[in-house]
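Researcher: We plan to redesign the surface later, but first we want a full-length starting point. Tokens attached.
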């Protein structure tokens, strides 16, 4: 996937579990799990807002664009 999600790193920094993050943000635990495992097709703006608010970070701190490696 060309977008890397740094949720696991942020959870580690805060020493939070996925369950704690779900409670803090109001995002469903299944969605948090999908983000953690980078297995999502889309994310809502409200979810990005809730994550950035919880981690006190910018969107670019959570998501990284990985360009295609063309030969």
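Model: Full-length starting sequence:
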């Amino acid at each position: 996937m060309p977008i890397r999600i740094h949720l696991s790193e942020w959870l580690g920094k805060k020493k939070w579990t996925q369950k704690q993050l779900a409670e803090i943000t109001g995002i469903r635990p299944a969605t948090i799990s999908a983000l953690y495992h980078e297995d999502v097709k889309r994310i809502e703006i409200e979810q990005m807002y809730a994550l950035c608010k919880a981690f006190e970070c910018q969107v670019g701190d959570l998501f990284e664009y990985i360009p295609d490696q063309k030969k």
